[in-house]
Specification:
Layout (H helix, E strand, L loop, with lengths): L20 H19 L6 H11 L7 H30 L7 H20 L3 H17 L6 H24 L10 E5 L14 H12 L3 E4 L5 H7 L9 E3 L4 E4 L4 E5 L4 H13 L4 E7 L2 E6 L5 H10 L7 E3 L10 E9 H12 L7 E6 L7 E8 L4 H12 L3 E6 L7 E2 L7 H10 L17
Parallel strand pairs: 1-2, 1-12, 7-8, 12-13
Antiparallel strand pairs: 3-4, 4-5, 6-7, 6-9, 9-11, 10-11
Helix pairs in contact: 1-2, 1-6, 2-6, 3-4, 3-5, 3-6, 4-5, 7-13
Length: about 450
């Protein structure tokens, strides 16, 4: 419910880091292009092969074939328009090798036409590359003689870069993939530090691992809306475990697959006790597959601030608490936010109730204003362990591996979330290097 406090975030430090695969693959592609240039007897212009190779190095592998095909089509479109433009300009201007400001103006307009033409053909993903190839042909042709021969060589140079890139993208260390393990991670202080966001490296690698069959999810105290905000670009393919084990939520279909509800009588009694003591709280209910945060008078500043910040989110639904008790059996948890003494007194009262063994009280100390206490009350059966076992059965995993920032509570303790340690550890456990994976050295699609 609380927002990350960015006011205390320090400026990003420019620390040295170990080069990632994209950098290493780019270096390898450049070296291979130059080796091919030497093997061809230094024919052609290697710079165009290098441009194509550097542009096409990809962080993901599953769509490489489609990407390569698009680049080839883009190359042919750009080169074709380049030849047409040069021939028309030579015929209309009577200049065999135009090289003046008018020629550059024609090249600029022509580049726009090529991009427009490519988009018009519903090939928008090829437009940028087609435009680059067009400019290569038109701008660098000056003094090169026959237009067709020159265009042919530029196509060959570019295709060499694409082929080299395809080879480099597909080369891997021999690895095996543990697709029968369910991996579950916390979010803040595990994937990234509190107050920050997921790094580019972690996002790219995490999506690649998921794409390659890694059974990955998150188990967190956060709501699905918060997970969506924090990990918006992660391609979740498994349901997430949210609200400290209360719900199992499918991020794709936006559907609650499982939810642990509080007993109606207990929910009604907790509400009565809190309202009698004038304690401020949200009552979270799941009605018709819609999560609703029900609020009261909101007399204190802290809970009003949470409401004002969160109510604008399209992923959250707020409604006032009514005297109607029909939704009591749909209660997932209570979210108390009030003065410390007041909130603690209410929690102590609830702990003394005869039904206290049927609930679980969690004190949340993150981002709480001075003098206030945040307390969440869940059904006792709502635990991460129970929901994780449910998900494990659902996906057919043989075992589970959990990542978290509390030592002793998770299989893998993440001490420092700033160094992409969770994703690196996930990669190591999902696809360890092994000679048994020798068949997978060249093509990631054959794992």
């Amino acid at each position: 419910m609380f927002a990350h406090n960015n006011t205390t975030a320090q400026k990003k430090k420019h620390n040295l880091f170990v080069p990632g695969q994209r950098i290493l693959r780019t270096v390898a592609a450049v070296m291979l292009c130059m080796i091919v240039y030497e093997l061809r007897g230094r024919r052609g212009m290697p710079i165009f092969a290098l441009i194509a190779a550097v542009m096409c190095i990809q962080p993901y592998t599953r769509s490489m074939k489609a990407i390569a095909q698009r680049r080839v089509i883009g190359t042919l479109i750009g080169a074709g328009w380049g030849v047409i433009t040069l021939l028309l300009e030579q015929a209309l201007r009577g200049i065999p090798d135009p090289d003046d400001i008018l020629h550059y103006l024609i090249a600029a307009i022509g580049c726009g036409i090529v991009i427009y033409f490519t988009v018009w053909l519903n090939l928008a993903e090829m437009a940028q590359f087609a435009g680059i190839v067009f400019l290569i042909v038109v701008i660098t042709q000056t003094g090169s003689g026959n237009v067709f021969i020159y265009a042919y060589h530029r196509i060959v140079d570019t295709l060499i870069g694409l082929v080299v890139c395809e080879v480099v993208n597909r080369l891997h260390l021999p690895r095996v993939r543990n697709t029968d393990i369910l991996f579950a991670s916390g979010v803040t202080n595990t994937i990234f530090e509190e107050g920050h966001k997921i790094s580019g490296y972690s996002l790219i690698e995490l999506n690649r691992l998921i794409e390659d069959g890694c059974k990955f999810t998150v188990d967190t105290i956060e709501s699905p809306a918060s997970v969506h905000e924090l990990l918006r670009d992660v391609d979740f393919r498994l349901p997430i475990i949210g609200m400290d084990g209360s719900i199992l939520f499918d991020m794709k279909s936006r559907t609650y697959l499982e939810a642990v509800m509080m007993e109606a009588k207990i929910a009604q009694e907790i509400r009565r006790l809190l309202e009698e003591d004038e304690v401020e709280f949200f009552m979270t209910t799941l009605e018709h597959n819609v999560l609703i945060y029900r609020y009261g008078e909101m007399k204190n500043e802290a809970i009003r601030d949470v409401f004002e910040r969160k109510r604008v989110s399209p992923d959250r639904n707020f409604a006032p608490r009514l005297s109607d008790v029909s939704y009591m059996d749909k209660t997932i948890y209570f979210f108390i936010l009030d003065k410390t003494e007041k909130a603690d007194r209410a929690a102590d009262t609830i702990r003394q109730m005869p039904w206290a063994d049927k609930i679980r009280i969690h004190v949340d100390e993150r981002h709480v204003p001075d003098g206030y206490r945040c307390i969440r009350i869940f059904p006792a059966e709502a635990t991460k362990e129970r929901m994780l076992a449910k998900l494990q059965e659902m996906v057919g995993a043989k075992e589970t591996v959990t990542f978290g920032s509390y030592q002793g509570r998770y299989d893998v303790y993440i001490e420092n979330a700033n160094k992409d340690l969770m994703v690196k550890e996930l990669k190591h456990r999902f696809e360890p290097v092994s000679l048994a994976g020798w068949r997978n050295i060249f093509s990631a699609d054959n794992f």
